[in-house]
Amino acid sequence: MYKKSMYLFSIVLVLGLACGVASADPFQQDPGPDGIVSMEAENFDENVPNPPHTWIFITDPEGFSGTGAMQSTPTDPGGGAGNDTGYVENSPRLDFEVNFSKSGTHYIWIRGYGQDGNSDSCHAGINGEDVPSAYRFWSFTTSYTWLNVTDSDPPRRTIDVPSAGVHTVNVWMREDACIVDKIVLTTNPDYTPMGEGPEESHRGPRLKAYHPSPDDGELYMDTWASLSWSPGETAVSHDVYFGENFADVNDGTGNVFQGNQGETFYIVGFPGYPYPDGLIPGTTYYWRIDEIEADGATIHKGHIWSFSIPPKTAYYPDPADGAESIDPNVELSWTEGFGTKLHYVYFGDNFDEVNNATGAAPMGSTTYTPGPLKLAKTYYWRVDEFDIIETHKGDVWKFTTQGAVGSPDPANGAVGVKQTQIITWTPGVYADSHQIYFGTDKEAVRNADTGSPEYKGTGDFGAESYDPGKLQWNTTYYWRIDEANNAHPDSPWTGNVWSFTTANFLIVDDFESYNDLDPADPESNRIFNVWLDGYDDPTNGSLVGYDTPPFAEQTIVHGGNQSMPLYYDNSVGYSEATLTLTYPRDWTENGVSTLSIWFRGNFDNASETLYVALDGNAVVTNDNPDAAQVTAWTEWTIDLQAFANQGVNLTNVNTISLGLGNKNNPVAGGLGTMYFDDIRLYAPTQ
Fold first, then answer.
1. Rounded CA gap, 610 and 625, in Å?
2. I want to staple 314 with a disulfide (CB 3.0 to 4.6 A). Which of 25, 95, 383, 682 is the partner?
3. β-pairing, 414-417 with 396-401?
4. Closest CA to 448 of 492, 408, 501, 487
5. How far apart are CA 406 and CA 398, in angstroms?
6. Tens of pLDDT along 565-586?
7. What is the CATH number of domain 406-504?
8. What angle do CA 38, 227, 298 make, to 5 degrees?
9. How many whole angstroms separate alpha carbon 633 and alpha carbon 256?
10. pTM (two decimals)
């Protein structure tokens, strides 16, 4: 049965019309071939409201670039003002001043977020005028998305810049609650921004060097390079730093300073220059250009740029090393090592045999088809690269075909895992039982058989879990699950070796274990059935979780994938939710002395006192009377002695409660929504 319906605020409204850049210079268009202008929405030049609508600065949902995003109001999803005509006069507007170095057609991209189909669109224009080709950016999704192509005419969103110089780019609200995060203009019709998009464009004169070549982060296919850059506008000379160590280049230490010069290029990896024997394959190089003004004293420290020379060994395997659920008809491929002419491929189902193999036939292509493979099996492969002079032995990679044991929990490589973790997996296609291997030595687990101490027994099909008992703090554990079926000649099927590392703290609750399963399911673990709220208590105004799945919060999280939303209505006096502890109950284990709770609220929450209580009566309140209105994840740390001083036996703590209001003297108050995550116990740092 679902809990009663309730409205939970999901958007943080922060500082009203805040942000923007007062009296700022215009954004400067990049003079390069793409003509990029990149602007964070919150860094507008002017925010023009049109009551009752306006644009407000927000920091929820997360995933924005910059410091936040801008949302049209009202912010209730589904509002859907839908201004398709007259929006220049009737919609709120954001203005961005841009100093264009290019005129003509510019393709405009907007990164935005839509809570639903009635809050997912906006308009753009230039110089305060509506532009049919920049009309209606719509279908933003519930993750931040770039839009330029739409299903209306014309299909590409463009604006025409009438001349070089300063013009105003405009964004208007079309629907209530639409979120705009970033605006990018480009003269290149083939350019597509990815992720958070390009770095925000500079305002005012460029004082630092820019436009590095090779590009920052580039994989550079040669052993010498002519470094070049565009100079800062006030620079008369340039200090050049170049080396293999990021810290040295950043700090100017070691032998990385290459001198001061007037030219905007510098050669490396060539006789007579730094690294005269050539740049080394498999190495990343860092460089920095400081711009020196005419007085010789004004220095603009540059960005740290880097590029890498590919290794001589094969790299970028496909499937990726450790990949699972691979098609048995897979074609293997890789990127050849630097200078490679021929390849030698070794393939098999035994790591040692593949690692030690020799004598493969040479081949010229960077693909290899091993033939139809068996299901539920792990295979190993190695590619050696020959560059005419010598052969460079490759790493041994592995993958597992479809049908094998999978979905390890904790995930492979997980860190911060609790010390009472029960490990689980999904069965393979052939299994009627599983052989379980567990230990702290990776190679021992990899090579273990049923006679090894790492062998922990057999698990039945349908019971894919293992309880290793209480684990050590801050320790890496390795585990392997082999499928077994005595009726099959290939049994058992050796599984991958997975790992996780336990936390160096105690986890009271990280909210990751809760699910949405029906209560009749024995695996059901709904958050509001564990954290007990005021649903059946008229004196307690709290409600935990959401009315429909997912019941836990999965967007506004501090760590992992879930947090706990707590709605409070203090018209009844106070609101709290209580967890009955199973582990940890000894809050002195390993010398822990500090309780840590991560929380955040909403700007429009009622200001109520935030508190935590142990065993019902020992209460500690947060020092910030406006904690419920804090809009960023905030850690609250409490010395456990504060509870001991109130009579709590820290070796046997029974319950923890999170609440708002005055627990001991309830007074009618307001309402709102809080989020809690990562409740932990820490020992003193050494």
1. 8
2. 383
3. unpaired
4. 492
5. 15
6. 999 999 999 999 999 999 999 9
7. 2.60.40.10
8. 70
9. 40
10. 0.68
